[in-house]
Design brief:
Elements (H helix, E strand, L loop, with lengths): L6 E2 L7 E8 L8 E2 L3 E8 L2 E5 L2 E4 L5 E4 L5 E5 L5 E8 L1 H7 L8 H9 L3 E2 L3 H19 L5 H21 L3 H4 L4 E2 L2 H12 L7 H7 L4 H12 L3 H18 L4 H7 L5 H12 L3 H5 L17
Parallel strand pairs: 1-3
Antiparallel strand pairs: 2-9, 4-7, 4-9, 5-6, 5-8, 6-11, 7-10
Length: 298
């Protein structure tokens, strides 16, 4: 059986983009990633999300924060209409709207560092987010004077609220039934992310974590949906892509992402991104994907 390969979903050409969606059809989504940060506000339905091996059992008014290049997928129960607000946030916009003391991307960076991406509110706080989201939607639909600036300001206000709540959030401690993770596989995932430039063969990892080779391979696949080799390759490619987009020369990016042979890197890069590194750097990564009847933001 072929190994799963995370594909890129969606192209963001604006500063940010909001989708309010409600559908009840079954959607089979594979593991994927985005080149932008994503915020999902669940309004209804039954959906489970897997983000980098951690499974979240979402409820209405939960917020899930998915940083760019994190591999994830939703598992949607079609028996109940799935309603959500999805906000895509451009990296350049986040940088421009941040200051030296206020980094609007901090919520995404902190959830990634914690390996916990869920924010769950009490009823009073839900009303705050409900009003913020409604105001942002209305501003984006409006044609009145200043609606673009108002929408921009409201999106910043929403992110400020999320950042404040993330800093004091105790969902992981107070809501243990909201998620499922394997502590040992979480250690393995963290180790891989921190040591991508090193030799990460199965035997070496198994020895480092005092696990049998067989157990490591099968448990890793059960938790993440990936073979160990495929996951490491995918994360190295995503790291290389991020470095290339930031202006790092291609050969240096390949080396800093952990590829020892440049020819191997080029083949894998082309197969994953369907573009050469030069085309990828220029943003020429294929046709635009727009949400339609076949492809909806998750």
């Amino acid at each position: 059986m072929p190994q799963p390969s995370a594909s890129k979903r969606g192209y963001l050409h604006e500063d940010f983009r909001l989708f309010h969606l409600k559908d009840s059809r079954a959607q089979q989504m594979e593991y994927h990633y985005h080149e932008f940060d994503k915020m999902i506000l669940v309004l209804g339905g039954s959906v489970t999300y897997v983000v980098e091996g951690v499974t979240y059992f979402l409820r209405p008014w939960d917020v899930l924060l998915v940083r760019h290049d994190l591999i994830h997928r939703p598992i949607i129960d079609p028996s109940t209409p799935y309603e959500r607000v999805v906000i895509w946030l451009g990296d350049d916009w986040l940088r421009r709207r941040s200051s030296e003391s206020t980094n609007l991307s901090a919520c995404f960076e902190l959830t990634r560092a914690r390996s916990f991406h869920l924010l769950r509110f009490d009823p009073e706080r839900r009303l705050h987010y409900m009003q913020l989201t409604q105001n942002l939607e209305e501003a984006l639909r409006s044609e009145e004077f200043g609606h673009e600036l108002l929408a921009d300001t409201l999106c910043q206000q929403l992110l400020i609220s999320v950042n404040r709540d993330i800093l004091k959030d105790r969902t992981a401690q107070e809501q243990p039934s909201a998620y499922r993770m394997d502590p040992k596989m979480e250690e393995v995932l963290r180790y891989i992310t921190a040591h991508l430039t090193e030799d990460l063969d199965v035997d070496g990892l198994a020895g480092h974590f005092y696990l049998s080779r067989y157990y490591l391979m099968h448990r890793f696949k059960a938790v993440t949906g990936y073979s160990l080799h495929r996951y490491i390759s995918q994360k190295r490619l995503l790291r290389a892509g991020e470095l290339i987009r930031s202006g790092v020369p291609v050969m240096k990016a390949a080396s800093e992402a952990g590829f020892q042979e440049y020819s191997t890197f080029l083949r894998a890069f082309q197969n994953t991104f369907h573009a050469s590194p030069r085309e990828f750097q220029a943003g020429l990564t294929g046709q635009k994907e727009e949400p339609n009847g076949n492809t909806l933001p998750d």
